[in-house]
Specification:
single chain; alpha/beta; ABC transporter transmembrane region fold; 4-stranded antiparallel β-sheet; 23 helices; disordered C terminus
Amino acid sequence: MADTSRSRFKKFLLTWRAARAAPLEDPTDHEAAERQRTKDPQSRQQHLRRYREWLWPRRWSLALIIGLALGGIALDLIWPIVQIHLIDGVILSASMEAAAKERELLFWGAAILPLFLINSVLNLWRNLRTTRLNGLLAFDLRGTLFHRVLHLPLDEAHSLKTGGVLSRLSGDVDATTGLVQSALLSPLLAGIRLVATLAVMFTINWRIALISVVAMPPIMVLHARWIRRIRPVWRSMGADRQDIDARVGEALGGLRVVRAFLKEAREELAYAVGHHTVIRKQMLATRTQGTIGLVWEALMPLTMVGIICIGGILVVRGHATIGVITAFVGFAWRLIEPVMAIVNSISDTQRGLAAMERVFELMDKPLEKPDRPDAQLAPSCITDVRFADVTFAYGSGKAVLHSIELTIKGGTTVALVGPSGSGKTTLTDLVARFQDPTSGAILLNGIDLRDLRLRSYRSLIAVVQQETFLFDGTVRDNIAYGRREATDAEVESAAQRANAEEFIVRLPESYRTRIGERGVKLSGGQRQRLSIARAILADPAILVLDEATSNLDTESERLIQASLGELLKGRTTLVIAHRLSTITHADQIAVLEHGRIVELGSHTQLMTRPDGHYRQMVERQSTLAEDGASWGISR
């Protein structure tokens, strides 16, 4: 069957209907683990407890909003009571003269008008405070969640889809923040208004009050049970939107590939199918809610008819008055409003709870390498970095580094060479503590890196990667990313040392030129030189160059190589290089194969080994270079 929105929706509909016996079960196949987790009431209680803890610092703002709402409720109930007096005690009074009636009506009109104005001011003030509270809560939660994402372990961070993270930071955070209104303020205030209105109604005339409320409890119970079944639909829609956002991010990030392979129509189709599926699910949820909505819409006129007809009979029999019936018509509106608010809050709460679970699921992911209790500050002077029998594997997979023994003296340069997949980048990731060894240890001046505070250690390191990442800002902003306080002179000096100034000054606004997202307005070589300038300005004690000159043209590479001697002077440097001609100056060259160091020495030492791995690699590259030259190919 073709993958269409109709087929996706039919599959979802079948599983949703099959799951109706278990209302909280999410039938989305790819969320089986989430489905199992949300079945656990204890997990839900933990989420709600954390939600209460998150709200606690804002308790006084909540108290003010509730106080303002209570004042508005009290003022709102005054008018129907006054209305009874004006109709029965004034307008229909047989004992009062016309002039007295006029004075009484004018008096109460002048007295009630300021109360209406005060009520309007209280409502406005409450709305403003509620908007401010929601904004602050969303800011707090969004900031906490973003902090968590930035500090996730790299494996966890890479496993998250960009669209999924963005949807949680935007829509899910808003829905979670909305729980304050839908799950707390709205039902609480509606409940108070409902109880107060019922108390006044039953005090005035219990017979008519009974007519007004007799049909509401069973309809509310039915509505609550029905809405409870919609929650899996909302959660599934959130997952679909996450996938759509992720697909859009991938398409925009790989736009050159999409266009090169003429797959624009395919991406548009995937986008349309995803959105149509969401629309179908949204229609399902709306139809389900709309069915109950029809009952509520019919309830109000039926209540009015009952009050007037049955109330009229009570008037004829002497058990009620015209003023009471008129007031009860107003009370009925005031009664339906909080009931509808409670019912709607049930639906909104279901969506908010689904979003809350997704937010807290991300928050529950472990942080990157928390400092040990006795962790110490990293030393500022590097004596040596030593790999002591280091083995590393990603997760529970096969080891990619085996028993690495390597000592890097402070201020020296070590080059890492070897075929793709030999473990070069993994080894530098261990030095930067993006990962920790599975066994063994990496020692800085004899101290295990895991015994150092991560931030203090990372402050010693700068990394220049093959895949250059620049931000959508100015040239200056990108060079000074690691040192925001750097002066213009320091930024320009770093650019000069990276041989980047010669193209920067030709840009429209020089250092103030905006370079676009990921530096799209620059060439690959220009982006790489900015990345190197950023590392130079950071003035690191340990420098990692991960094929940092691989994206440069011949002239740019020549310019960088000319300044490498000064750049590396006094720094402990690890260089990953594909072009072996660029690392002949290294103090040590480590040759890796299959995650093991098979040769170690200087360029001169390794070239003296007739059958050595390094010498064979150099000779192969020389042969390839000569063959390329004979075909007119230049690097």
